[in-house]
């Protein structure tokens, strides 16, 4: 999901990366390597994908906002995939979702928007109701709120804020600076996203070995790929909207740069080669990102930039580069975001307006990737932000 709304190069190295070197907050690290090469790949127009297995959604849970505010925050809820047994996760907090730890009781990590206008990284034990506060921070961008990601081993959280990206050690509560923003063009009232060099939307590879961070916006956006053990940047790839394959073997990302507008696959190490796997011939189209069904198939969403233009959701097979369209339409309402469920089922939100300051949502929909059929679930206005297993 385009951050439900959208992108920055000082880096902490070695032991500071793991939060184990005392109380210092910032270090200077290595420079990024040159962007990986890019090759345009022609796509077959005839679908010939093998049938997928029947979906197994028995253990999948969805996390959603009810209702969503104009700032991208709301009350966090969790439910079964069919919308049953819905439970409010953090009562009384206007929040955004970071992650869950279900190894013992249900421990929810989230960012809370405070009445003062600042933000707080918190956790809540759903069994006892105990809340733990980690750190308060500021934010300075419109239409998109701060985001965070829980590490696969559930020991660290990385999150973005007005000054850069920090990592929090969840055992000690200590926060260390990983990236520091360049402020030019990033701060109101003089916002110019073409000049803004901020870092944002950090994410982990499923195996925890790599961390990806977006740097800059639009045509100048870069994806910094970082070794989570050493803290060094190993590659810089033009683009944004990163999605890791389940086995951490590949990245799917989008790029907006003239004829190179479209979807790209990046092979994980050692050279991080990037190749275009989906091109967009219509300059008014926008590739919104992808999720992986498995290590060889990715689902994608393409929408027109204006209310009356067509949209489509499809599947791209990584080996043959064949595509199959699951759902399509035009105008409003239209999809926003695509999420993988357990098994080959897809969820997308439904948006009724395109004004980022006054978005209105309909009912989310669940798509069967075998038949292409879809059905609404949850309530009108609910916005799915994650699927957890």
Structure, explained:
With 389 residues, the protein is mostly beta strands. The chain has one domain: Methylamine Dehydrogenase, Chain H, CATH 2.130.10. Helix content is 0%, strand content 44%. The chain has no helices and 28 strands. The strands form seven sheets. A four-stranded antiparallel beta sheet has the order 3-2-1-28, with no helix packed on it. A four-stranded antiparallel beta sheet has the order 4-5-6-7, with no helix packed on it. Strand 21 and strand 22 form a beta hairpin. The radius of gyration is 20 Å and the shape is globular. It starts with 60 loop residues before the first strand and ends with a strand.
